[in-house]
Write a structure and sequence with these properties.
alpha/beta, single chain, about 20% strand, binds zinc ion, Rossmann fold, 4-stranded parallel sheet
Length: about 250
Amino acid sequence: MPENRAFFHFYHELRDFFTGPGAAISLKYDFDGKPSVKDAIEAIGVPHTEVDSIVVNGTSVGFGCPLKDGDAVSVYPASFSPEIPVKAALRGEPPPSFVVDVNLGKLARRLRMLGFDAAYRNDYADHEVAGLAESEGRIVLTRDRRLLRFRIITHGYWLRSDDPRIQVKEVLGRFGYYPLVKPFNRCLECNGDIVPVEKEAVLDRLEPKTRLYYNEFYTCTDCGKVYWKGSHYDRMKETLDSLIIRKRDAE
Ligand SMILES: [Zn+2]
């Protein structure tokens, strides 16, 4: 039997990591030695990236705080600020760019549509996602909570929904990025920057009808894809409108 026991309480959306009826939000954690509070939280099954503050016996602590016998530990997500005089910051501000895990291509396209820098490939290995998060300072977005346990990942988010329309709202809400939405800035295909371009410069790459009906064009500085305010734009407006409605609801 382990020698020590601590008592954990998980708040708000951190409960999403406990499945089943009567999902545990308060639990006893038995341990030997002096694990860090971070190690214990991850052993319980909550990725460190989901945790915004930790209070042990009434004092806000960092991830490295060693766990002791009898400790009472409260664990909070970003959406909830406990009333404590001095809060130990677990990490800096999140960067405005993402690396999107495999099988989430639709989410990556939607984020690009909204102007966000969203790196994505459908064949990333886990260590590549983590490596990009570290080397390029990106937020990891994934449906795989184990991926978020990489130590080198500072910012990340475990998507609750498997519907990309809901996922994009989850992400903007979680990081407070609604004000950063900037459509027509990012190539949906390759994540390159798109810039306005004269119609004459792309005339030879347009279908006859597009040539006839549209006058405002953009091109990707990386892959050269041409965009105009046609069907892409309608789809984008739909996405934007639904986001704006959601934002009004939240206010
Ligand atoms: Zn491109």
